[in-house]
Amino acid sequence: MEFTLRGVAWIERIFEPDYILVRLAILLAALVGDLLWIVPGVGTRDWVLALVALVLSAVCRWSQLWALLIQSGLLLLADGYAFAAAPVLKVLACVLLFELAVRGRGRQVAAGATVLGVVVCFNLLDKLPATIGAAGFRMVIVVGVPLLLGGYVRLARDAARRERDSAAERIAAARAAERTAIARELHDLVAHHVSSMVLRVGVARHVLSAGTDPRITQVLDDLHTSSTAALADLRKLVGVLRDPAPFPTTAFVDPGGLPDALTVVIDRARATGLHVKATIDPSATHLDPLRGTTVLRLTQEALANTIRHAGPAAQVTLNLTLDTDNSVHIQIEDEGRPPQENPEPPTARGTGPHEGHGLIGMRERVDLLGGALSVGPVGKGWRLSAVLPAEQKNPRERREATV
Q1: Where would I find the Histidine kinase/HSP90-like ATPase domain in this sequence (predicted)?
Q2: What is the Cα 233 distance to its own chain's centre?
Q3: CATH fold for domain 252-403
Q4: d(CA 7, CA 325)
């Protein structure tokens, strides 16, 4: 079955306009073989006329009708002066009529078929009605068969195109329904709980007495800020999932806003005690929202993993640079747990029964952009290194990776 499908695909590609050279090579081989071994009495003038006709077949890529009309004129000349290559010219004319039937408009096909039919039967017109049977047979073979085959190929191509469009619409509808269901659950379930958390933390901040330990107040303030930001991101995510447009109109990173977004993430990590030394290329302000969102998510996940595995007092370096070809390089590396804490083996990260989804998500984001991601232990710590190529134009990649 696989071999058959590949064969059909190969045959379909042969009829595409871009494969004109392949078709010409096949016609040239058939023409040479016909003139060398099949047609008797072939002279120099036959070779010249046949090659001129073959060159005209190449013109069918731009104007099948004019190529067929000129080819019909050459065929009329060959019949009138008894060229030995006349049968070869008839074959080439049939091929051009087939090409016209596959790609031309109705009036063009009718005009080309009429002209070719008259030329084929021209030398029989003065002998009618005795030659009406021969004329009809020539019309069927030279005109009818190419029209029939061309019409069949055209209908098959149109049907295949409609099926592809229909399948794409069904897939798009299924994805839209799935995204809508996810958005609904996020709004009704997750966002509801996060909103309740924000409200309760806000109430707790107001009911604390004046003599409360300031560290508790600081933790509640940070929790309120983080939960408020999480609620805002959830609402943005719901907007992206419900956006029916080909490209999302809602973005997590506004154009030019990546450095500020990274600063917010880094400041939150520092508030937990993490020591972050960040170097951000100033040209990151020109980064598109798609790659900006990916850089932001990589940074968030890497810093969260550092806090979880290396502890909130770990040392982290973050470097974000852009090359001259507009590719993005980001590297985040930590030194592991400080000596006074119990060290965790670097290879233990992401290996637990409920861990590793963050690493999978990062790798998926980078793969959608055609980039490269390297994550692994370095000494006592851990390093994440990613390269994101120039902005992708694929609509599916742009839509999926934005989330």
Answers
A1: 295-391
A2: 27
A3: Heat Shock Protein 90 (3.30.565)
A4: 40
- Residues 6 or more apart whose CB falls under 8 angstroms from that of 68 comprise 60, 93, 96, 97, 100, 112, 115, 116
Per DSSP, 126 falls in state: G
Dist. CA 233–CA 264, nearest whole Å: 13
Q: How far apart are CA 271 and CA 82, in angstroms?
A: 96
Give residue 9's pLDDT band: very low, low, confident or very high (50, 70, 90): low
User: pLDDT value at position 196?
Assistant: 85
Residue 347 sits at the vertex; the CA angle it makes with 343 and 351, to the nearest 5 degrees, is 110
CA distances from residue 78 to 29, 53, 82, 88, 122 in whole angstroms, order as listed: 21, 11, 6, 10, 12
Confidence of residue 392 (pLDDT cuts 50, 70, 90): low
- Output the CA angle 65-10-113, nearest 5 degrees: 20
* Chain segment 238-257, per-residue pLDDT in tens: 888 887 665 554 566 776 78
User: Residue with structure tokens 């972050």?
Assistant: 276
Task: State CA 60 to chain mean position distance.
Answer: 30
Strands in 275-280's sheet, in edge-to-edge order, are: 275-280, 315-322, 328-334, 381-388, 372-378
Q: What is the DSSP string of 184-245?
A: HHIIIIIHHHHHHHHHHHHHHHHHS-TTS-HHHHHHHHHHHHHHHHHHHHHHHHHHHHH--S
Its pTM surpasses 0.70:
no
Residue-averaged pLDDT of the chain = 82
What is the tens place of the pLDDT at every residue in 351-388?
Answer: 444 455 788 889 999 998 999 999 999 988 999 999 99
State the first-to-last Cα distance of the chain, in angstroms, to the nearest integer: 38
Residue with tokens 């974000």: 320
Q: Are 355 and 269 in contact (CB under 8 A)?
A: no
pLDDT at 12 over 70: no
Contacts of 242 (CB under 8 A, 6+ apart): 179, 180, 183
Q: Where are the beta strands (DSSP E) in 232-363?
A: 275-280, 315-322, 328-334
Give the span between the Cα atoms of 377 and 366, in whole angstroms. 19
pLDDT at position 73 over 80:
yes
Quick one: pLDDT at residue 239?
83
Q: Where are the domains of the chain?
A: 2-120, 252-403
So what's the pLDDT on residue 237?
83
